[in-house]
UniProtKB/TrEMBL annotation:
Keywords: Glycoprotein, Membrane, Secreted, Signal, Transmembrane, Transmembrane helix. The keyword Transmembrane applies. This is Gamma interferon inducible lysosomal thiol reductase. The chain crosses the membrane at residues 12-31. GO terms for cellular component: extracellular region. Coiled coil: none annotated. Pfam families: GILT (PF03227). Belongs to the GILT family. One of its GO terms (molecular function) is oxidoreductase activity, acting on a sulfur group of donors, disulfide as acceptor. The keyword Transmembrane applies. It is found in: Secreted. Signal peptide: none annotated.
Length: 223
């Protein structure tokens, strides 16, 4: 019987095998390096700062409804992923008691505080703006408990948390929020002196939304 043929690696086969393994290793290294660089690249949206957009209103003012319905809501529907929306309020800080005087009385101040609490507890504009618009549709009854509860239920807001926010420290925390909000409105007016003090405001720092302050509807003279 003839001896079995023993097949060994020829020099050519050895060179080809080493070359193939080297090519695989180089391809893997290049792929891993590229993937690592891509993983460190932040999302494109991270480089695009959202445009500040503010609405300055009074909760018991009939024109607040027009402002939210006709200006804010259409803007948010088209650009909610491009703006940082804030709801602020119009009033006058008082000097003697660190409080706020509201044009439509103490009930309006409380309505403002409730809407600020909603904004604080539920920072998604779709929630707190929807809640504010729900209240504004029936602004004559702000801040009646039934209206607040109904709108809170409609927009999945916890009424107890809302009430706790508005009444914490005997109402001092809520009043502090309102005071800060009306002071912000005063700062905006100070840079736009042509805007009357009894108008609702739409404000943005973006050059594409100039003029920065746009009155929605002129308010009637105070009684």
């Amino acid at each position: 019987m003839p001896p079995p043929i023993r097949r060994g690696l020829s020099p050519l086969r050895l060179v080809l095998a080493v070359g193939y393994l080297s090519l695989c290793a180089a391809t893997y290294w290049i792929f891993q390096s590229h993937a690592a660089r891509l993983s460190n690249v932040p999302p494109i949206e991270a480089h695009r700062a959202r445009i500040p957009l503010e609405a300055h209103i009074m909760s018991k003012c009939p024109d607040a409804k027009d402002c939210l319905d006709d200006l804010v809501l259409p803007a948010m529907q088209k650009a909610q992923d491009k703006v940082n929306f804030t709801l602020s309020f119009i009033g006058t800080p008082t000097e003697n008691d660190d409080g706020v005087a509201c044009k439509h009385g103490p009930e309006e101040c409380l309505g403002n505080i409730i809407e600020l609490c909603a904004q604080k507890l539920y920072p998604d504009p779709k929630t707190y703006l929807g809640f504010a618009m729900c209240l504004t549709r029936d602004y004559e009854h702000i801040p009646q408990r039934g209206l607040i509860e109904d709108c809170a239920l409609e927009h999945a807001i916890d009424f107890r948390s809302l009430n706790d926010c508005a009444t914490r420290n005997d109402g001092a925390d809520g009043m502090s929020m309102l005071r800060g909000s009306v002071q912000r409105t005063a700062e905006v007016r100070a840079t736009h002196t042509h805007t009357p003090e009894d108008e609702t405001l739409i404000y943005s720092t973006s050059p594409s939304i100039r003029p920065s302050v746009r009155p929605s509807v002129r308010l009637p003279a105070a009684n």
